[in-house]
C-alpha cells in the first residue's frame, strides 16, 4: 500500500511540475510576449522532433509566414528572418557567444576557429586568412585544375561505358571537392575521383550527419541526454571508429609535415607560414582546424555545385544563356581560369541565386544574448536567450525577395529586376568577425568546375530528379542523387 501511495504521489508531483512548467513558459517566461505556436513555446520537443526528422527548415519557414519576422520556436529561443537581425546578432560590435548546445563537441585537444572563444578565435582567424589572400587563390587554382581535368576525363569515361549517359553529379562534385581539400590540408588526395567511389572517411562523414543531429538536440534535454547519447554511440560505433582512425592518420600527416612536399603552397602551408605569435597555431589547433576545414571546404562547395546544376537545368532559358556565354567566351579549356571567369557576371549571378534558393547551411546558427540583454530587430531580448537568423526561411520570404520561389539570376545583375529585393538579408557566409572567409574561393572553385562542365558537355536533368531540391536537412542538406544526362560536345 505504501509503495502504491509513493508511486502515485511521485507521479502526481511530476504532473504538477510539468503543468507548472507549461504555465510558466506560456504566461510568465521573459519570452512569453513573442509570437509563436503554443506548443513550441512551452516545450523544446516540437523543435527537436522537427530537427531530428530533417524538416525543421520547412517548419520554421511556415511559422515565419504565419507569425512574422520573429518567432518563438522554443521556450528559450527566437528565430528571425530579416536584415537587421543579421547585424544585431552577428555584427562586429556585437558580443553574442555561440550557443554551444547546438554545436557538435569535438574530441580534439584544441578548439577550431568555429567554436574558439574570442581572443583565441581572433588569433586563429588571422592565421587562416592568409590562405585566402590573392596570391593564395592563384596557388589554390593551380592545385585544383588537375582535379578538374580528372573530373572531366572520368565523366567522359563513365558515359562512354553507360548506355543512358546518366551520371549522379552529386557524387562527382563531392569526389572532386573532397580530393582537392584533402590535398590542400593533408598533402594527398583521398582518391575518390580515381576510384569513382567515396573514401571510407567521406562515407563516415555523410553517414554521421543524422547522428550529429540527434546528439545536438540531446543537449537540450539533460535528464535524457545520456540515454540518447548511449543509443547513438551504440548504433554509430563503426562510424566513430572510422573517425578516430582517420583523425589519427591526419595527426600523423600534420606531424610529418607531408604538406610541405608539394610544389605549390597549400592551405596548410599558408596557415603555418607566420612566425608572429599573434597569428600562429599550435599543432593541436592545426589538427582541429584541418579536420573542420576538410568538411567546410568541400561539402559546402559541392552542395553549391549540385544546387546550381539542378536549378540551371530546370530552366531551359537559363541553361541556354549560361551555355552560350561560356561556350562563346572560351575556345579551349585552358582559357577557363579563375580570372577569366570574372568576365561573366551571369555565371556569378547564377551562383548567387543558387545560394539564395539552396544555401549549404539552411538552418540558423544560434547565438546567446549576452548578460544584461540586447536589442535585436528593434525589440529587447533577455540575456541567455538563444537567437538565430533562419537562413532558408529568410531567403524564401516575400518580405525580402520578390517572387522568392522563382530562380531568377537577373536579380543579381543590377538590371532593375532585383531592385525591390532586400539583398542584405541574404548572408550565406554570415557577417561580422566570425563570417566565413572562404567566399571568394568558393565562388572561384564553383565557377571553374561548372564552366568546364558546361563547356565540355551538353547536360540534361532526368525527369526523376525534377523535385530534387525537396530535401531534408540535418545541419546540411541530405542530398539524393542528381541524375544528369551528359553528352560530349562535338
Automatic annotation (TrEMBL):
GO terms for molecular function: heme binding; iron ion binding; monooxygenase activity; oxidoreductase activity, acting on paired donors, with incorporation or reduction of molecular oxygen. InterPro entries: Cyt_P450 (IPR001128), Cyt_P450_CS (IPR017972), Cyt_P450_E_grp-I (IPR002401), Cyt_P450_sf (IPR036396), Cytochrome_P450_monoxygenase (IPR050121). Keywords: Heme, Iron, Membrane, Metal-binding, Monooxygenase, Oxidoreductase, Transmembrane, Transmembrane helix. CDD domains: CYP60B-like. Its cofactor is heme. Heme binds at residue 436. The chain crosses the membrane at residues 6-24. Belongs to the cytochrome P450 family. This is Cytochrome P450 monooxygenase. It comes from Aspergillus nomiae NRRL (strain ATCC 15546 / NRRL 13137 / CBS 260.88 / M93).
